[in-house]
TrEMBL record, chain A:
Native source species: Nonomuraea terrae
Signal peptide start-end: none
Bilayer-spanning residue ranges: 48-69, 75-99, 120-141, 161-183, 190-211, 259-279
Protein name: ABC transporter permease
Pfam families: ABC2_membrane_2
Alphabetical UniProt keywords: Membrane, Transmembrane, Transmembrane helix
Lineage: Bacteria, Bacillati, Actinomycetota, Actinomycetes, Streptosporangiales
Domain of life: Bacteria
From TrEMBL, chain B:
Record-stated family: Belongs to the ABC transporter superfamily.
Domain ABC transporter: 4-234
SUPFAM superfamilies recorded: P-loop containing nucleoside triphosphate hydrolases (SSF52540)
CDD domains: ABC_DR_subfamily_A
Protein name: ABC transporter ATP-binding protein
Keywords: ATP-binding, Nucleotide-binding, Transport
Species of the source: Nonomuraea terrae
Gene3D superfamilies: P-loop containing nucleotide triphosphate hydrolases
InterPro entries: AAA+_ATPase (IPR003593), ABC_transporter-like_ATP-bd (IPR003439), P-loop_NTPase (IPR027417)
Amino acid sequence: MSEIYDIGYRHYDGPRLGRGYATRALAVHSLRGVFGLGRPARSKLTPFSLAAIMLLPAIVNVATMALIQQRVIQYSGYAVIMQAVVAIFLASQAPTLVAPDLRHRVLPLYLSRPVTIASYVGAKVAAMTVAVFALVAVPLTVMYLGELVVDMPGPPATGEFFGSVVMALALAFLLSAFGLALASFTPRRGLGVASVITVYLLSFASIPLVYGALESTGHDEAASWAWLLNPFWLVDSVQSWLFGTPPHSIEGGYPSGPASAVFLVALVGIGLGALMLRYRKAAAR
Amino acid sequence: MHILATEGLTKRFPTVTAIDQLTVTVGPGVTGLVGANGAGKSTLIKILLGLLPPTGGRADVLGLDATSRGAEIRRLVGYMPEHECLPPDVSATELVVHLARMSGLPRTAARERAADVLRHVGLAEERYRPVGGYSTGMKQRVKLAQALVHDPKLIFLDEPTNGLDPRGRDEMLTLVRRIGTEFGISVLVTSHLLGELERICDHVIVIDGGRLLRSSAIGEFTQATQAVTVEVDEGLDELAARLAAEGQAVSPQGRMLVVKVLGPETYDAVRDAAADLGLCLIRLEQNRHRIEDVFREEVRAHV
C-alpha cells in the first residue's frame, strides 16, 4: 500500500537570479514563440513554411552554381529580392509576440517581478530580431557553404557574404523595432497582422509614385531618395555605401554618402521609442 | 516589527485623489484591506509594489522604500491582480513555470516550485490543460499560484474572491488563511466585504475615498454588540410584549426582534418567553459589527 503524505509547504532557499537572467529567459521564450516551438503544430506552420520558401532560391542558386557554374542571385541582393516573404513573416509573427500579453493583460504579472518595461521590450525586440535575422542569414549561409563546396571559378565572394550577413542583422533590427511597435498598438492579433502588412505595402507602392513623379520632372538626384521609403532598399542603400556593393534598386541608384545610414538609425530609434511609449501606457492601465 | 508602513501617503491623479494622507502600519500575518470599489485599494498596492510613484508621503515594504527600491521589493513579494490576467492558450504549469523564471528562479527550481505551488492551491491534473478552459475558481487559483511560486515573504492579493460562488469563496478564504499561518507568508488581502475578511484576518484596515477609516486587530471589529436578534415563526408581537413586560429593551425590526443584552439573564428571558408562549424559535443570533457599522460610526464621529 502506498500512501501520499502531505509534506506541507516548503520554502525556497535556492538562488534568485537577477533581471538579466529573467530578460534572457523571456527573450528565449519569445523566440520559441515566434517559431511556434512548444506550441501546437498549427502555430509552427506559418513560420516554418515561410522559412522554407526563403531557403528555396538559395538551394536553386547552389544547384546552378554546381551545374552551370553561374550565380543566379548575389548575397547582397537576397533580402531585397525576397522582401515579400520577409515582410509576411514579420507581419504574421510580430503580433504573436506582443498581442496576447496586451490583450489578456498579462503585463502586470511581469512588471510585479524584477522585469521592467525596458527589459520586457528589449527581450521582445531581441527575440524578433534574432528570428528575422535567422530567416535571412540561414539561406545566405547555405548559399555560401554551397559556393565553397561547389568550388566556383575565381575566389569565393567571402567579403560580400559577410557584408550581407551584417546587413541582415541591421535589417532584422529595423524590421523588428518597427513591426513590433505597429503590432503593439492593437491588442488584436488580426489587426496587428493587417497593420504591419499595410505599412509594408504602402512603403512598397509609394516608391514608383514618388520616383516616377520626381524623375519625369527631371529631378533625378531627388528621385533616388524614393528608395529609402522602403526598409529593404534602405538597408541595401546602406550596404552599398558601407561595402560598395551594386545597388539592387529596380531603376537608378541610391543617394550617395551616409545619409541613408543616418535615416536607418533614426527609424530604429523611432520604432523603439514608440514601443516604449506604448508599453508605458499599457503598464499604467 | 512591521512588514509594511506608510506615512502621509498621497496619490493624486489629474481628476481624483486616490490616496489621501494615509498613515498605517501592517504587522506579520494576514491583514485585510477593506473599502468600497474605488476606495484606493488597488492604487495602494501598486504604490507598495513600486510601480506607481506616490504624489506625497512615503511607503516602506519589508524595510525597503517603495519609491527608490521597488526592484528589490518586487523580488520579495508576490502579487495577484484583481482583473483577469491569464493568457488562455497556455497550460497552468507552463505559465507558472515561466513566471517563476521571470522572478529569477533557475529552470529546474522553477519547475519544482510550480508543481508544489499548484498542488497547494488545489490544481490537479487540469494544470496541464490550457487555462482558457478553466472555471473562474480555477483561474483564481492559477493567479494565486503565480503569486506564490517564488516563495515571497509577503503577498498582495487584490480581491481574490472576486467572481467566485459561495463555495469557491470559502475555499479561497481558507487557502488565504493557510498561506498566512501554515506557509508563514504575510498576506495583504483586499475585499469590499468586511464580513468575509473577519474569518481569516488578524488585522483589518478600512479605507474610504483614499483615507484611513480604521485600523485595528480583528477582535475589536468582531466584538459582539450588546444585542441579539430573535426570529420566531409567528407570535412576534406577543413575544415583544412579554419581554418588554419583563423589563427587556425590545425593538422590532421587520420580522425580527432586536433585544438589548443587559446581562446573561437576557438570553434566559428570551428562551423562557419563547417556551412559555409555545413559539417556534427560528433564530437567536448575536449582532456583529458589519462594514456598514464601521462606516456609520466613523461618519458619526466626524460630524
